[in-house]
Amino acid sequence: MVRNLGLQPSVFNQFISEIRDASVQQDSMRFRFNMERLGSLFAYEISRHLEYETKEVTTPLGVAEVPVLKSYPVLATILRAGLPLHRGMLDVFDKSENAFISAYRKHSKDGNFNIQVEYVSGPDITNRTVILSDPMLATGASLALSYKALIGKGKPSHTHIVTLIASTQGVEYLKRTLPFDDVTLWVGAVDDELTAQAYIVPGLGDAGDLAYGTKI
């Protein structure tokens, strides 16, 4: 299942427009903050699909019955670009356990690249809900490999994959590769073009560099 939040008119698209805007991107703090806000909005939307139970809460004037989460999802992200998006979701799911995946493009001299997954750090996710976030879904290879590495920590009951900007090709790749009965893909926008170097157009550029500075 694919859920595109950008198709609905809301302030969500204001934040998407700012992370795309080359002039706004010059302020790295603003860029990170917009990613965090988008993460919180994704978390709210996902929370509508989780399980709840009724809890009695004692107030100064009596007792109120309030539906609360039965359990918190495990929040997972791909280093380093996913950290602000992850932080925004952690502001909402503040009691969640966390997992971190090191995955990156290893370029060769001929201009091609392979995806390398170096390590996964996180709790047992068996029969738990997992939210895996990465700001950009280009070819889909990084997210697919990260998902497969993550389920080495156990088989989740359901996984929500969150990405800000996706390519059409990346979405189709995940549909072919992942068990979509157990996975929901959440996107902020879907762009049609993917360059030969696997960059999304119009996209927004390199999210990790924009958030934290260029890398060598």
Summarize the topology.
Layout: E1 2-4, H1 12-20, H2 28-47, E2 52-59, E3 62-69, E4 74-79, H3 83-92, E5 98-107, E6 113-121, E7 129-133, E8 136-137, H4 141-150, E9 158-167, H5 168-177, E10 183-191, E11 193-194, E12 200-201, H6 207-212
Parallel strand pairs: 1-10, 4-5, 4-7, 7-9, 8-9, 9-10
Antiparallel strand pairs: 2-3, 5-6, 11-12
Helix pairs in contact: 1-2, 2-3
What would your notes on this structure say?
The chain has six helices and twelve strands. It is of the alpha/beta class and 216 residues long. The protein has a single domain (2-51, 63-208), classed as Rossmann fold, CATH 3.40.50. The strands form three sheets. Strands 1, 4, 5, 6, 7, 8, 9 and 10 form an eight-stranded mixed β-sheet that branches. Strands 2-3 form a two-stranded antiparallel ribbon. The longest helix has 20 residues, at 28-47. 35% of the residues are buried.
